[in-house]
Sequence to fold (278 residues):
Amino acid sequence: MAKSGEILGKLTAQGYRITPQRIMILDAVENADDHISAEEIFTLVCLQYPNVNISTVYRTLELLKQLELVTETDFGDGRVRYHSIKKGHHHHLVCQKCGGIIDMEESVFTPLRESLLKQYGFDADIHHLAIFGTCKKCR
Amino acid sequence: MAKSGEILGKLTAQGYRITPQRIMILDAVENADDHISAEEIFTLVCLQYPNVNISTVYRTLELLKQLELVTETDFGDGRVRYHSIKKGHHHHLVCQKCGGIIDMEESVFTPLRESLLKQYGFDADIHHLAIFGTCKKCR
DNA sequence: TATGCAGCTGCAATCTCTTGCATCTATAAT
DNA sequence: ATTATAGATGCAAGAGATTGCAGCTGCATA
Fold:
């Protein structure tokens, strides 16, 4: 809430408009305790302004993603979740047996990014990745 | 075609049934020149047997995926594609600017897998991953 | 060869997400 | 304050994928 002004400034600076819908959607992502789905955002925004359309939510999230203000992560449960970039970059290890999610440091990917850059000249854009497998307990 | 017998044997061994639909779906994946989508498989199978249902295609692919006979890759174009595991494990670098796809060796992921195992005790199941970013030409 | 049934299929409904289009509006220029 | 317009929204249709359920069938057994 307090800081969403900064982000709104970024939108304006890049020629995008500040609309009430965007403010409410952004607030919902910023104030979420965890990774939040489009449907959850939609429900929250509807409490304030019942006329919002779910497609506006998706389009706004797409925009925020392009501007690198939020990240999108697919935890493999059929719906993608969003997270404010202000709360830090991190990745997830998703156990396919117990469903548990382990958060991991972004730095684990540094060697991979470097070798992709060296071997393939490819600048990998790995922001918020979920990797599937089997956790310690379930092995 | 020639080798799908082996796979059918694996199905039987694990208590799954061999049905005409499964044979046709499996053949479609095995004979595909490239990564093939569910819709494409469906179209191919329909030529032989117009009564197949798309949900059978999805369910069969899900089964083959669980049995590690095919891999699923999301190239980010709105539909997931499948690939026979017999044609080898590999990963893809997808350029978000030009849309180009670079294939890469599985071995690039070995150090990452090892550090996940060491640091988190997590056995990562990275079969066929698409990583997004910017390729050499577009940087 | 006939039978029983777990497992598979087809169908239809549903879910998540995207897209085209007409209308509306935030914003910059007047 | 008014106006023009590029950009945003709402609506509805649609695409890809999943799911519940009734009925069908591969295949193990007798």
Remarks:
- Chain A has five helices and seven strands.
